[in-house]
C-alpha cells in the first residue's frame, strides 16, 4: 500500500508504505478511487495552527474521498463489498486525513455511518468532490445561509467550493453576485448562473444583498459584514486566514448575523449527489493522477486551479 503522508508544517509530503488497514467492528475498508485536493490541505501544509486538529503525525492526508467497499467489519449491515461510496468527513467517525489516515492512499478504514451511496451516473471524481466541497457548499447556502427563492446572494470566492455554492444558490431560486479575484473564472461563474462578477463583494453594496457566503476567508470577512444589507446574514466558510479583523460597529449597528459554517451532514452529501445525478449540477473538476498530488497542492496554493482538483485511479 502506498500513501502521501504529512510529516510536519512546511515539509513536503512523503511517499510512504503504511500497513494495509483492517476493519474493526462497525467499520469498512474502502479502496480509494478518487480523492479531492482542498485549500484546507494547503493550509495544513504551511500553518502550524492546523496541527492540533491532526490525530497523529505522520498522517495520510485527503479528506474528500470516493471509492469502493472492499471489506466489511463485524456487525456492518446495509452495505456490501463492491458498493460505490463517498465518505462524509463530518460525522462522529471523524474526518479522513485528520482523525485517521485519509484518501491520499490506496485504502481508508472508517466507521460505516460515514458512508453515502454514490448514484450510478455520478463519477468517482464527482463523488469525491461531493463529499467536502459539495457538502460544505450545500450546507453553507441552504442550512447556514437560509437562502430561498427571491433572495439576493453574494458569493465570495468561486473555487471548488464556491462554484458549487453558486449553483446551489441559483437552484434555490436566488439572484447571485460573485466576488472573485481571478477574472478568468468569471465566464464559468456566469455559465453557472451568476448575475454579475466583480473583484470585491463591496462593489455590490447597493444591490442590498440578503446573504453573503464567504468561501475564501482571505481578509474578506469584513468586506462581507460591511456590504450585506441591514439585518442581513454573513456565512463564513473559507479559512484562507485563521484570523480576521472585523468592524464591530457595522456588525452591531446593521444587526448583521455572522455565522460560521463547518461542513455539513451525510444528507448534504446526498443532496449534492442528487443534484449531480439529475444533471442540474455539473461540478468543474480537473482530474490528476495520485502521483501528481504534491504538485497539485502547490498549484492550488498558488491559485492556478479552476474548479476542484481531484486525483483519480483507473
TrEMBL record:
The protein's matches in InterPro entries, at most eight in alphabetical order, are given as: ADH-like_C, ADH-like_N, ADH_Zn_CS, ER, GroES-like_sf, NAD(P)-bd_dom_sf
Ranges for domain Enoyl reductase (ER) come to 8-311
Question: What PROSITE patterns does the annotation carry?
Answer: ADH_ZINC
User: Per its Swiss-Prot or TrEMBL entry, what cofactor is needed?
Assistant: Zn(2+)
User: So which domain of life are we looking at?
Assistant: Bacteria
The record's annotation in SUPFAM superfamilies points to:
GroES-like, NAD(P)-binding Rossmann-fold domains
Q: Keywords, A to Z?
A: Metal-binding, Oxidoreductase, Zinc
- Any keyword Oxidoreductase? yes
What Gene3D superfamilies does the entry give? Medium-chain alcohol dehydrogenases, catalytic domain, NAD(P)-binding Rossmann-like Domain
Q: Which family does it belong to?
A: Belongs to the zinc-containing alcohol dehydrogenase family.
PANTHER family from the entry?
Answer: NAD-DEPENDENT ALCOHOL DEHYDROGENASE (PTHR43350)
What is the designated name of this protein? Zinc-binding dehydrogenase
Q: Which organism is it from?
A: Ammonicoccus fulvus
Q: Taxonomic classification, please?
A: Bacteria, Bacillati, Actinomycetota, Actinomycetes, Propionibacteriales
Amino acid at each position: 500500500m502506498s500513501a502521501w503522508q504529512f510529516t510536519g508544517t512546511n515539509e513536503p509530503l512523503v511517499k510512504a508504505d503504511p500497513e494495509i488497514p483492517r476493519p474493526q467492528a462497525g467499520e469498512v475498508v474502502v479502496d480509494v478511487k478518487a480523492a479531492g485536493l482542498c485549500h484546507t490541505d494547503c493550509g495544513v501544509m504551511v500553518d502550524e495552527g492546523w496541527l492540533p486538529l491532526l490525530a497523529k503525525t505522520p498522517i495520510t492526508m485527503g479528506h474528500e474521498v470516493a471509492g469502493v467497499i472492499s471489506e466489511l467489519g463485524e456487525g456492518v449491515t446495509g452495505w456490501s463489498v463492491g458498493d460505490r461510496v463517498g465518505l462524509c468527513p463530518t460525522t462522529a467517525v471523524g474526518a479522513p486525513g485528520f482523525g485517521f489516515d485519509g484518501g491520499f492512499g490506496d485504502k481508508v478504514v472508517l466507521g460505516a455511518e460515514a458512508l453515502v451511496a454514490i448514484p450510478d451516473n455520478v463519477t468517482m471524481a464527482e463523488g469525491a468532490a461531493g463529499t467536502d466541497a459539495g457538502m460544505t457548499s450545500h450546507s453553507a447556502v441552504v442550512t447556514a445561509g437560509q437562502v430561498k427563492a427571491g433572495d439576493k446572494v453574494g458569493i465570495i470566492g468561486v473555487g471548488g467550493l464556491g462554484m458549487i455554492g453558486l449553483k446551489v444558490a441559483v437552484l434555490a431560486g436566488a439572484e447571485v453576485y460573485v466576488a472573485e479575484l481571478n477574472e478568468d473564472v468569471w465566464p464559468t461563474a456566469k455559465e453557472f448562473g451568476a448575475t454579475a462578477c466583480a473583484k470585491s463583494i463591496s462593489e455590490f453594496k447597493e444591490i442590498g444583498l440578503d446573504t453573503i457566503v464567504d468561501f475564501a476567508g482571505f481578509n474578506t470577512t469584513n468586506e462581507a459584514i460591511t456590504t450585506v444589507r441591514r439585518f442581513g446574514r454573513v456565512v463564513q466558510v473559507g479559512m484562507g486566514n485563521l484570523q480576521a479583523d472585523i468592524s464591530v460597529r457595522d456588525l452591531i449597528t446593521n444587526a448583521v448575523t455572522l455565522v460560521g459554517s463547518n461542513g455539513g451532514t451525510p444528507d448534504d452529501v446526498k443532496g449534492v449527489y442528487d443534484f449531480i445525478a439529475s444533471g442540474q449540477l455539473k461540478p468543474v473538476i480537473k482530474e490528476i493522477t495520485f502521483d501528481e498530488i504534491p504538485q497539485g497542492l502547490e498549484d492550488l496554493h498558488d491559485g492556478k486551479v479552476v474548479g476542484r482538483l481531484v486525483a483519480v485511479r483507473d
